Amino acid sequence: MNVSPLIEAADLKSHLTDPEILIIDLSSEENYLKGHIPGAVHLPSSRLMSGLAPIPNRCPTDEQLQNLCDEIGLTPETWVIAYDDQKGPWAGRLMWTLNIAGHHRCSVLNGQLSAWTSTGLTTETRSNAFTAGSYPCTIDRDLIADVDYITSHLNCDGHLIWDARSLAEYSGEKIINAKKGGHIPGAKHFEWTDCLISDEDLRIKPAEKLREELEHAGITADKTVITHCQTHRRSGLTYLIARHLGFNDIRCYDGSWFEWGNLENTPVEK
Fold it and tell me: Catalytic site residue 229?
């Protein structure tokens, strides 16, 4: 059975006791212990990055990916459902990470934990643990765009870059942990939080409305889309959005601006 990239709280409730369900909470440990969806297991968001210098926010190594899949007890039949406490970017990044490992039965809870609690559904405070296993990873690096890939496709009509940062970062007015500010030449801007209904309602906007807004920003599904932010946290959500809207070729630049903005020879627009 194919699964949708987004799942509503009511639908999750009806599947809560399914044996193939694995609910992963990517919130802080403190928030996890305050209350989580029954059966959810906590996973530190740091497990979604290599942690290796000089760009620690890059995708885990092949070995790290294999260890992660084994530790969470992933099987080909497992349906992973994720949420976080940061409006969805870590949940989206988990989906991307598992997709790289060859696992595509992944969904993100639409609206995160607040969508669950706002409808009166209960939470629990006891800690749950993963049951380790052995998963046959088939690494797909085509979901990643690195500096060489981006620079070789800067003037390619079939590619576009989706910059998910704030407008101030995109324009170069605000610089975070980088030697230079601005954006990758030709990059289209659509801030990650503009994919959400509001700060109070963290669900994704209706698909047609979101598709229209993205098209107005120059982001269309007929091209290879490369999305990034500062450290590929926020662009975890935009990866999810692209999957949700049926984009055929979506790649993530996991080095993001933390890498691009600190390299000497990378071109920048402001």
Answer: yes
